[in-house]
Amino acid sequence: MIKKVVLSTLGVALTSSLLVGNAQAGEVLDRVKEKGFVQCGVSQGLPGFSSTDEKGNWSGLDVDYCRAVAAAIFGDATKVKYSPLSASERFTALQSGEIDLLSRNTTWTQTRDTSLGINFAGVTYYDGQGFMVRKDLGITSALELDGASVCTNQGTTTELNMADYFRANGMSYEPVVFVKADEVVAAYDSGRCDVYTTDASGLAAQRTKLKEPNAHMVLPEIISKEPLGPAVIHGDDQFFDIVKWVINATVEAEEMGLTSDNIAKLLIDSNNPTPAQQRFVGTEGSLGENLGIDAKWAYNVIRQVGNYGEIWQRNVAPLELPRGVNNLWNNGGIMYAPPLR
Amino acid sequence: MTEQKYPIGQYPNLPPPKNSVGVVAWLRDSLFSNWFNTLLTILAIYIVIKTIPGLLDWAFFSADWVGTSRDDCSREGACWVFINVWFDQLMYGRFPEDQVWRIQASYIIAIAAAIPLFIPAVSRKIKTALALFLLVLFPIICFYLYYGGSFGLEVVETTLWGGLFLTLVIAVTGIVMSLPLGILLALGRRSNMPVVKSVCIVFIEFWRGIPLITVLFMASVMFPLFVPEELSPDKLIRALIGVTLFSSAYMAEVVRGGLQAIPKGQYEAAAALGLNYWKSMLLIILPQALKMVIPGIVNTFIGLFKDTTLVLIIGLFDLLGMAQLAATNPNWLGFSIEGYVFAALGFFVFCFTMSRYSQSLERRLNTGHRN
Amino acid sequence: MSEQKLINAPAKPPFWRDPEKRALVFQAIFLAFVLFIGYSLVRNTMANLEAQGIASGFGFLSTNTGFAIAESLIEYDESSTYLQSFFVGLSNTILVSVIGIFFATILGFIMGIARLSKNWLVSRLAAIYVDTLRNIPLLLQIFFWYFAVLRQLPNPKQAYEYFGVVFLSIRGLFGPKPIYEDGFGWIVAAVILSIVAIFVLYRWAKKRQEDTGERFPVLWTSIALIIGLPLLATVITGFPLSWEIPELKGFNFRGGLVLTPEFSALVFALSIYTSSFIAEIVRSGILSVDKGQTEAAYSLGLKPSWTTRLVIVPQALRVIIPPLTSQYLNLTKNSSLAAAIAYPDLVAVFAGTALNQVGQAVEIMGMTLAVYLFLSLFISFIMNWYNSKMALIER
Predict the structure, then answer these.
(1) Which chain C residues contact residue B211 at CB under 8 A?
(2) Closest CA to C148 of B328, B250, A216
């Protein structure tokens, strides 16, 4: 009797859970709308990109793009939940649907874009891998690093770039590879390694965590291209488009001079907004409709999160990183958004 | 010898020679019985002199106890200010400060319900009721208390859970969930049915053969692949499932030890009474077997309790993870020793008490089973 | 005859009450249930993999890794294949396990015997050692040695120097490395020869003792053999061995033999953690030998040292060996904690770095698990073999 009860309960429970599982990718947008929030994968703590304060509030450039997507879909930038992920967990988390959006300083590479089943929606930060050393080593170039111990993170392109660079220049090195960024920093700070290598933005961010930030310097060589940007899963093109155009909207807004402060005025006293501005805020045209979301989506993004320049100023500027290639195209950089029309 | 005061055969018992009793004799017997022993003693005294005063000095006499930042740690010894500042995080992780009462409430309930179990005077009925409450109802209460979302409690995401609290959640859930699973597996392994038996053996040996860290890796990275996409529970639950399956295999082996120790006559007697398999197991065999393996279960729990530290590798911050996090905080670099010593002390207190408890139980039950 | 039997036979129970048939039905249901779960898991995985466009198959094993590994017993560089990185991880795991087992056994036996010492101070110290170490999680101990202790060492430029050939710094312990020259093979051959000779001698001495009762000083002869023969070979071949002394060049010491902090912390923590368990096993093994055995040996006139060696140890070993092997197995599995401190073992290199670069979790985790399962089956196979051998010797 008990056997039957146990068996049938187990059976029902398992069949109901397993049979439903005709895994179908796609329709992420429906899932997000149904849940009422965007589940966003971020880093476990990288100042300037995604980190928490003591009260657990998230901030950073990557976090702002999570908020921007939520603002576009729900008209409310707070409808985000964050999953802090390690470098090794991030892709499976996205593939499995545990998160809807991966915004975790992730480099866009061809292999990742194709064989991992994910799509990169754009570039929010053009980065490159650099090296940080102690000033008292008296080194001025990465080419003097022969025989050094190098600390870095596991599961990143950094590991491969570093190997390529040292091999191409005929130098030997000792890799010391940790799973967590904090452990890499601690290892470097204690002197276990001579060199710390990761994306230049990461170096600037992690430098603030060192005992004496001023005793360290970033070498001039940038050995790789690291375009960082948010990624979504293959299969739901609509959601992919939304994320892509949210990024473009922030860049376009900066070019058009729209900020979170002045964009509200456009709606209230629309005495003479240009047609482009009207399209942007959704009073004209069908940009929102094309994406399947509210017509005021771009307005909400800029009003609640800000344009690309504002996002940068708020998060990255405090790290004392030059804006460099991340300037707008008409300002010496390569940030260029296709037209919103 | 020459003076004979007593008649032959009526000597009173003389006291033993002076050098074979008392402190001197003890010293000679246990410390200086021969040259090798003396050498060992001197070596041991040297070790004690070399370590203990320095350790005491570091931990107490030259330690800093009060303050709020690392600047308050100017003396040479340990900086307990560090522990002081991070104490809440080490205990509860990032659980919102104004919600911590929920955790404390559950501790109080657990302790209040558990104390009567150790008092012999309490009647058996009450003990059974309390044990059932702790095993069945209490976990459900805890879930609502911790996670919230109903009864007017605000939701606390599992990513905010941490510290000793998370350690306890994982260890206790692991053991409570793995017990029934382990019993079923042990019964299956001793079954006469070849199919059931071999499936159970394969299952048990699989989980016993692989390291926990790979189980956790699978839970964090691969688990989402195994289940339908709609079902992707959060990281803590995946880790809990992994830990439960892992420890259920060890539990099964402990329970099997108990089942094997039951004399065959008990099985036969149960059969002779006309009890079917489940009845004879539930009413005759398991009560005896489980009682016998309580020390083994406690030992498994100790092992699991220590193993929970591994969850920090997949990014959950248990007591050790929190200590590690605090030690890599830029404002507190260089105090990792204090953090580790504190965490070690925490684990030691729990594990040592439990192992002493299981040893005393073992002696009381006198089953001679060891893990 | 047959008719008679039929009449006397008890009425057959209906088939749903027949235990044998019921067992068959139950097993069929159970099997179907298990197969169904297995099938569902496989199908879900396949569907998920396909839906997400993740590649599958073992083709990646023959592609180049492109990453470097800090320590390797076998040849490996960035142009090696993933299969080679697998073997690098595997060999590192085995290296750590073997060395860890070696030290854990020695320490464990010393501590186990020390706990039973009549010397009060020694037995107390041993008890503190055992109780402390076995009640603190291994990972915490590894972290303690690695992050708290070894990180305090000085930079290479301020390295502690011993005799001008050994250097200790935060980068590890650097010592001289033997360089084998021509003719070194003779010394190896001499070592092997002396081991064979000792084995033969042992057999012969045992037989002689059983036949005649005379004892032969096997131990001293063995020591003479194992030192003498290789020494002789060394002298004859003219010391075909030189040493490479580490040198401080640029950032680090170059050349010589290196013990990295990662390796040292891992081996150290694994050894002392496991030794605390082995000590308990040894203690209970020795206690399990009845006191009467000792008394009987004494009354036969055996010296205390002979009593220990000939009477107590052989009996205690029978109790000690099975749990000891399972401790060895635990140590091997625990060596996977290397992943937490950057030592490139199987889990760190293959299930970590390689998995992250390739993304084929199913294949890579499958291979990793297979290694550990194989190791545990292998060790339990040896244990069973040993147990049956022990059972045969019992008289």
Answers:
(1) 333-334, 336, 347, 372
(2) B328
C217 and C365 co-located in one domain: no
What would the pLDDT profile of A22-74 be if each residue is shown by its tens digit? 334 447 888 899 889 999 999 887 888 888 776 668 889 999 999 999 999 99
Chains adjacent to C (≥3 CB pairs closer than 8 angstroms): A, B
| Cβ-based contacts of B199 with chain C (< 8 Å) | 30-31, 34
C-alpha angle B167-B168-B170 in degrees, rounded to nearest 5: 70
A-C contacts (CB, under 8 Å): 127
Taking an 8 Å cut-off on Cβ atoms, the answer to whether C353 and A235 are in contact is no
Number of domains present in the structure of chain C: 3
Per-residue model confidence (pLDDT) at position C10: 65
pLDDT for the residue C393: 55
Task: Spell out the domains of chain A, with CATH numbers in brackets.
Answer: 28-126+228-331 (3.40.190.10), 129-224 (3.40.190.10)
Work out the minimum CA distance from B46 to partner chain A, whole angstroms.
33
Give the global pTM.
Answer: 0.83
Domain region containing C30: 2-51
Binding-face residues of C in 16-45 toward B, CB within 8 A: 23, 26-27, 30-31, 34, 41, 44-45
**DSSP class per residue in A201-248:** HHHHHHHTTSSSGGGEEE-S---S-EEE--EEETT-HHHHHHHHHHHH
Beta-carbon contacts below 8 Å between B and C: 154
More confident residue, C122 or B222: C122
Do C267 and C376 fall into the same domain?
Answer: yes
A210 CA to chain B: closest CA distance, Å? Answer: 6
Give the CA distances from residue C243 to residues C160, C231, C237, in Å, rounded to whole numbers and listed in that order: 20, 17, 17
**C151 contacts A14? CB cut-off 8 A:** no
Residue type, B249: A
Tell me the nearest-neighbour CA distance from B148 into chain C, angstroms. 31
Q: Do C229 and C262 reside in the same domain of the chain?
A: no
Q: Which token pair is B289?
A: 């077997």
- The answer to whether position C308 is within a domain reads yes
pLDDT < 50 positions in chain A: 1-26
Beta bridge partners of A84: A42
Q: Which of C244, C273, C298 delimits the end of a domain? A: C244
**Which structure tokens are listed for C35?**
């197969």
Residue C154 located in a structural domain: no
Q: Same domain for C298 and C385?
A: yes
Q: Which of residues 314-333 of C touch B (CB under 8 A)?
A: 323, 333
Q: Does C207 share its domain with C289? A: no
For residue A240, give how far its alpha carbon lies from the nearest alpha carbon of chain B (Å).
18
A239-251, pLDDT tens digit by residue? Answer: 999 999 999 999 9
CATH number of B178-289: 1.10.3720.10
In a domain, C34, yes or no: yes
Min Cα–Cα distance to chain C from B5, Å: 38
C296 and C383 part of one domain: yes
- The C-alpha atoms of residue C358 and residue A109 are separated, in whole angstroms, by 13
Quote the radius of gyration of chain C (alpha carbons, Å). Answer: 29
Mutate to test the interface with B, among A22, A35, A98, A209 (most CBs of B within 10 A): A98
| Residue C240 sits in the same domain as residue C266 | no
Report helix, strand and coil shares of chain C as percent, to nearest 5.
Answer: 70, 10, 20
**Which of C197, C221, C244 is where one domain is finished?**
C244
Whether C164 maps to a domain, the answer reads no
Say if the ipTM goes beyond 0.90.
no
Claim to verify: residue C370 and residue C318 sit in the same structural domain: yes
Are C139 and B309 in contact by the 8 Å Cβ rule? The answer is: yes
B263, pLDDT greater than 60: yes
Q: What is the pLDDT of residue A19?
A: 34
